[in-house]
Amino acid sequence: MVASMRGMREQAVEDLGWEKRDPARYNIDGIVRDAWINGNGSDEAWKAAVEKHYRRFMVGDWVRITVEVEDGFTEHHYGVIENFRKPDGNFYKRNAAKPYAVFVHPEHTRSHVVPLAELVEEINDFETITEWSAVHEGGPEHNYGVYSCLGGHGPYPPPATVMVVHKVSGQKKRFCDACNTPDYRSQLAHEALWYQRSSKTTILELRANPELITGPTGDALPYYTKTDADAYREFAETFPWLVPAPAAELYAKWKKEQQNAANAA
Fold it and tell me: b or e along 247-264 (b: 16 or more beta carbons within 10 Å of the residue's beta carbon)?
């Protein structure tokens, strides 16, 4: 039975490889047990076992955690899973088939123990565009219309091959394949974090009084003096993802009214 079990393990690993799956992310013994020992060996039993015994998170994976901070703000932070933890925060003494939480120490906040149910794979926060024409649309003329990689290459970076878009903020950066890594992608997300941290006063003001964004413009003033409302609207154009929803709705309505008035003039 030992040799048979070993053979079934090897067969399961081989089958996962044929399906272009990483065997390290699966509980092989669990798949063997549910698909072939307790199961009937059918394709349906195999698929169910593979889905059941997939390890979504492993030590070394990059993940995003959501941290609640003061004034009702939340922040997204990125880091590597360092180990798994029990519900009480203690370590597991042996490998756990279904761990409860992970320990993560992101770069820009304190360490956290986070339940697996609250984790998000780092890659899911980004859109990756690989089509050459889209990556290099509007590229610099001095470089023949080609953007260079913004990774760590020194003075002679290679051409970019991907454009990474942070889904929440719309921030973009272009990398070569070698630099399209979790570390560089998380740095892009951290830029959005800095914008949020540095804009807290403006966000809180618009949260408390959304009508501030629809105040008078400085168009009619001598030599054009920018009003507070103009500044809020500039903020909304530059950082739309940071504008509280009520203020964003009022601003969209205000812009439409301004456009209608201009068309009627």
Answer: bbebbeebeeeeeeeeee
User: What is the distance between the alpha carbons of residues 189 and 178, in angstroms, rounded to a whole number?
Assistant: 19
- pLDDT for the residue numbered 98: 84
Tokens representing 170? Answer: 């719309």
Q: Which stretches within 178-227 are classed as H helix?
A: 182-198, 200-208
Residues 199, 211 contacting (CB under 8 angstroms): no
Q: Evaluate whether 33 touches 52 at the Cβ level (below 8 Å).
A: no
Query: DSSP E strands: which ranges in the chain?
Result: 62-68, 74-85, 101-104, 112-115, 120-121, 126-129, 162-166, 172-175
In this prediction the pTM is 0.85
Number of helical (H) and strand (E) elements in the chain, helices listed first: 8, 8
CA Rg value for the chain = 26
CA atoms within 13 A on the CB side of 179: 22
Residues of the chain predicted below pLDDT 70: 1-3, 220-224, 265
The whole-angstrom separation of Cα 218 and Cα 110 is 44
